[in-house]
Amino acid sequence: MAKDHKKLFHLLSTWGGVLLLIVAILYFALELWPRWQPGLIGFWENSKDSASLPMIGLSFISLLLGYYFAPAPWRKILEALKIPKIDKGKVRRNWYTTQMGQYVPGKLWMIVGRIAFLKANGTGPVKAITAFILENLYMMVTLTIMALIGLPFLGLANVPLPVIIALWISAGLGVVMLFAPKIQKVITHKLSHRLGTDIDDLPHISHRHQAVFVGYNLLSWTLRSMALYFWFRGFGVQSDPPFAMIAICLMAGPVSWFIALIMVFIPGGIGIREGVQGILLSGFVHGGVEVATVIALGQRVMLMIVEGLYALQAIVYGAMRKKFTTKMNHIEQVFHLAGSLFKGALAMRGLSPPPQPINVTFSVTRRCQSRCKTCFIWKHSPGDDLDLATIERLFRSIGWTYFFNVSGGEPYLRDDLPEIVRLACRFMKPAIVHIPTNALAPERIEIITREILNAINQEAPGTILTVKPSFDGVGALHDEIRGVPGNFEKLLDTIERLKKLREQYKYLHVGVGTVISRFNASHLKETIEYAKGLGVDTYINEIAEEREEFFNLGSGITPESHSYDQLMDIFKESVRGKMKDMKILPRITTAMRIVYYDLAVKILDSNKQEIPCNAGILNVNINSDGAVWPCAVLAYNAEMGVVSQDNDFQYIWRSRKAKDIRKSIRRGECACPLANQAYSNILLHPPSLLRTLWIAFRGK
Q: What's the burial of 375, exposed, middle or buried (CB within 10 Å: 0-12/13-18/19+)?
């Protein structure tokens, strides 16, 4: 019986409202319009000289801006509830498309569309419905605030006394409800029960988060209310004093929305909202409620056009993503990167919370078969690696990143490495996935790399995979440094296998990398010459560092700064010779390396930050046990927190401890030539970035 009742309710809310709307339109066209037309003609004759096309244009712009900010409270509520991270663009697009669902088939389906979207993105029904309830509760807070602003001006607007009394009582009830937990509990229970879930208590929301929700709602509704004011002014409606009409418009928008919200069977509240606005604004209009209502209906047409444009943009974008997936992924990456760099620059100055990191390094395991002289991970217990379920929660919480660097240990020792990369591509959408390897298992590396490439093609087409076997010297020197006899032969075998894979996969890049230490510094020229004949896409080097992560503090592996300076001159000369034949993007990347090499020498010489470091802002390291670090050098000594069932990445990333660590880095209390970190530092340091672009432009 209950199911039949629910089915009937859904049927009425879907088609009953549409039928009612059709009847209302026919009644307006056949009955009301002929009666109201003379009054409208008279109004226009008196007001056309005061009409203003620029004001109508301002109304359109104000509506566009108002609806641009409209999804923000919803998105912020999802963040506050620690709902698994969903791409901001996807959340906005869903909000706009479901917003149109309030018209056809009906308001209830707008709600169902948002909840279904959250469920499809890993959110349980309880949290999804809680988010919807909170959205409407804080909308009511906004309504109450804006009503309190407009209520004192009702007398100036000649609003009928019964309406004034009703509005004051409604505002009073709104205030009582918002500060009465028991009333909120009853509303919550009723709404959630209606949506098929029982929620007794809403979660605790911090005052800061509440201020953000209300602030965005106020911004959006103020812009929409001002659009109503500009619209009436555009049709020649005057107000004396003008602030009285502005105040009434500030109240008319949200009040009419709230009344239409109650009338769930009327799609979009069409007619109800305009009737309320007509009553409230009739005191300013020659011709009374009828004329004011018709003007408001005209503004509703513009409002629907604006909503439709945003929804159309979302639909077209979705269609383009399906047809041009790779190109759209690349365009998205550029915009995401620009946004994160801008927010990162603000965060460096303490003006903004840290953005999503553009560089995520994740150590998938500490297990390793190598016995390197420069790294002593193999001497310590590897501990437990994060399981896939925890990794999925981690990646969901991080959201977008530009560069996903897989680290270890030896990453290829994990059988589920393809699944880890799949999850990274699904939830973080990186432009580049980078995996280093010790090259001790050529066949295994080939098989797993193929699986990874297939996963990337399915989840994030166009994402580049770079696989970089370590190359620390030629022949026996490599084996000696890596601590495993026969490693060099396996390195060459691995490179050949990867090059064959490269023929089949367009976005596979094969590189080799040298860690320059006191063990191979004197052989760098020979190593560089040998690398030229390997047929790889890139050859890079970085300085061997004493890192907490590698358990090699006090090992003395780092070459002296003057020695490194001479070595870098050799390497820069080799790189510069190739630049003139490169395309612009590889040329910029190469130029950035040249700037980095000079920067590393200065840091080694001065033992201080030569340019400001944004570790813990644009870069993050996550250890195999879930520990979040600002970088691999500070590592365990600067642990921000550990990812767990209760602690997601965003909570740790914005915690008090993380803030304190960033302040320490900003004060210059550490310094290192870490290559991974230096590249993002260069991006946020204008002199270094300009030098990079100048070198790239000159091509030498």
A: buried
3-class SS of residue 389: helix
- Answer yes or no: is pLDDT of 530 > 70: yes
Spatial separation of the C-alpha atoms in residues 435 and 508, rounded to whole Å: 11
Question: In angstroms, rounded to a whole number, what is the distance separating the alpha carbons of residues 476 and 486?
Answer: 8
Spatial CA neighbour of 90 closest among 103, 112, 79, 75: 75
Nearest to 253 by CA among 284, 278, 277, 217: 277
The pLDDT score that the predictor gives to residue 660 is 93
pLDDT digits (tens, 9 = 90+) for 599-626: 888 887 888 888 999 999 999 999 999 9
107-120 and 88-100 are packed helices; what angle lies between their axes, rounded to 10 degrees?
A: 160
Q: Are 105 and 12 in contact (CB under 8 A)?
A: no
Compute how many other C-beta atoms are within 10 angstroms of the C-beta atom of residue 303. Answer: 22
Which secondary-structure segment (H or E) carries 360?
Answer: strand 359-363
Task: Note whether 413 and 369 are within 8 A (CB).
Answer: yes
* Helix-then-strand count for the chain, H and E: 27, 9
Distances in Å between the Cα of 537 and the Cα atoms of 305, 540, 586, 631 are: 51, 10, 10, 27
Give the orientation angle of helix 675-683 with respect to helix 686-698, to 10 degrees. Answer: 90
Percent helix, strand and coil across the chain, each to the nearest 5: 65, 5, 25
pLDDT band at 1 (very low <50, low <70, confident <90, very high): very low
∠ CA 646-652-657, nearest 5°, is 125
d(CA 155, CA 66): 28
579 vs 534: which has the higher pLDDT: 534
Q: What is the C-alpha to C-alpha distance for residues 401 and 393, in angstroms, rounded to an integer?
A: 15
Report the SS3 class of residue 568: helix
Instruction: Report the distance separating Cα 246 and Cα 223, nearest Å.
Output: 11
> To which H or E segment does residue 516 belong?
strand 508-516
Find the mean pLDDT for residues 201-209: 80
- Bridge-based pairing state of the strands 627-629 and 641-642: antiparallel
Peptide bond into 241 cis (omega under 30): yes
Work out the number of other CB atoms within 10 angstroms of the CB of residue 501. Answer: 18
Q: Output the furthest CA–CA distance in the chain (Å, rounded).
A: 99
Q: Which of 538, 512, 542 is nearest to 673 (CA)?
A: 542
pTM score, two decimals? Answer: 0.77
**pLDDT, tens only, 87-105:** 788 889 999 988 887 776 6
What length is written for the chain? Answer: 700
Determine the average pLDDT of the residues in 284-309: 89
> Cα 583 to the chain's mean position, in Å?
30
Average pLDDT over residues 451-479: 93
Sign of CA dihedral 410, 416, 422, 427: negative
Higher-confidence residue of 62 and 527: namely: 62
Eight-state DSSP code of residue 508: E
